[in-house]
Design brief:
Blueprint (H helix, E strand, L loop, with lengths): L1 H24 L3 H11 L5 H25 L5 H24 L2 H27 L1
Helix pairs in contact: 1-2, 1-3, 2-3
């Protein structure tokens, strides 16, 4: 039972950190939840991605309502993005469901590394 309580506590902390990052920076899902759930909790990548997507719904709704109240969302751009986002999300989920765990990890890792390198390059360019 002690191990179960510890696991619940770790999951709670992952959710808290991811929710904070989601609200503050607009990140959380793939960037924080998936690595934390797979590396710390030992959850399979495909399951972690599903959990992450479900958690991001709540994060996004909470942060979006706050951003709407502060009038910092361009509703025209949101309306343009909704249809392709929904279509692409369904296609992406279908593809992810058909991949083995190793392939999914490699693709995910490649994307995280690419984003990290792009952000580092942008920071270095600003300094010069």
């Amino acid at each position: 039972m002690e191990n179960d309580v510890f696991s619940l506590l770790i999951t709670f902390i992952i959710g808290f950190i991811g929710g904070t990052a989601g609200g503050l920076l607009g990140i959380g899902g793939g960037t924080l939840f998936v690595p934390a759930l797979t590396l710390i909790q030992g959850i399979e990548q495909s399951i972690a991605q599903g959990i992450s997507l479900a958690a991001v719904i709540v994060t996004a709704m909470s942060a979006t309502s706050r951003n709407i109240s502060k009038n910092i969302i361009d509703k025209d751009i949101v309306m343009i993005m909704i249809v392709p986002v929904v279509i692409a999300a369904v296609i992406g989920a279908q593809i992810a469901g058909s991949l083995d765990q190793e392939s999914l990890r490699k693709i995910f890792g490649f994307i995280l590394i690419t984003v990290a390198l792009k952000n580092i390059a942008s920071l270095l360019m600003q300094k010069t």
